[in-house]
TrEMBL record:
It holds the Pfam family DUF2878. This is Protein of uncharacterized function (DUF2878). The chain crosses the membrane at residues 7-26, 32-48, 60-80, 92-112, 124-147, 153-176. The lineage of its organism: Bacteria, Pseudomonadati, Pseudomonadota, Gammaproteobacteria, Legionellales. It comes from the Bacteria. It comes from Legionella wadsworthii. The keyword Transmembrane helix applies. InterPro entries: DUF2878. Keywords: Membrane, Transmembrane, Transmembrane helix. The keyword Transmembrane helix applies.
Length: 190
């Protein structure tokens, strides 16, 4: 098996193991073991990229950005009493640590596994419109996310992320292009 296929398998498996660990330990009401396990799987992915001298910093920056945006939207929904997270030491004031870990894993893997597809903004709009509410519904079925007002929440989460995710991809590409152009300018001055 080639190095790129092994890498793809490591990232794919780590992504889902991170989700499963976060879901499992959150369902057990373990506030800290869920994010610790999730972060370990993220660390495995970054270690793989680093050991094989593959780029990972841009993916990590994007993951942190998505985690901040995801946490902010979750905090708004917590404040509006639309949702409640199980295994949340911050109660209704801040996103659960395991959910932040899921956002980080999501953002990291969007870039590492799908960077070539991130310019298809309309496709991501449509996918996110339907899949993001489905992801929250999975959390509700696993009894780790409690959704108070089902109908409006699912509409809000779908529409919100249908705009936020493509906009995040656009900003990612804008800053990557701008950063590479400024490096080229510095090199041309030498």
């Amino acid at each position: 098996m080639s190095q790129s296929k092994v890498g793809w398998c490591i990232h794919f498996i780590s992504y889902y193991l991170s989700w499963i660990a976060c879901f499992y330990f959150a369902a057990q009401n373990n506030e800290y073991l869920a994010p610790i396990m999730g972060f370990l799987f993220i660390a495995v992915q970054i270690a793989w990229q680093s050991m094989n001298r593959l780029p990972y910093l841009n993916a990590l920056y994007f993951a942190i950005f998505i985690a901040m945006v995801g946490s902010l939207t979750d905090m708004i929904w917590l404040y509006q009493n639309y949702i409640y997270f199980k295994a949340n030491p911050f109660r209704s004031y801040f996103t659960a640590p395991w959910m932040i870990c899921i956002w980080l894993s999501f953002g990291l893997n969007l870039i590492i596994l799908n960077e070539k597809l991130t310019r298809y903004y309309f496709s991501w709009f449509i996918l996110t419109l339907f899949l993001m509410p489905f992801a929250y519904q999975i959390g509700a079925r696993c009894s780790i996310v409690f959704i108070e007002k089902n109908s409006p929440f699912y509409y809000f989460v779908g529409i919100t992320w249908a705009f936020l995710l493509p906009a995040s991809f656009y900003l990612y590409h804008y800053f990557i292009t701008r950063n590479s152009n400024s490096k080229m300018e510095k090199l041309s001055r030498i």
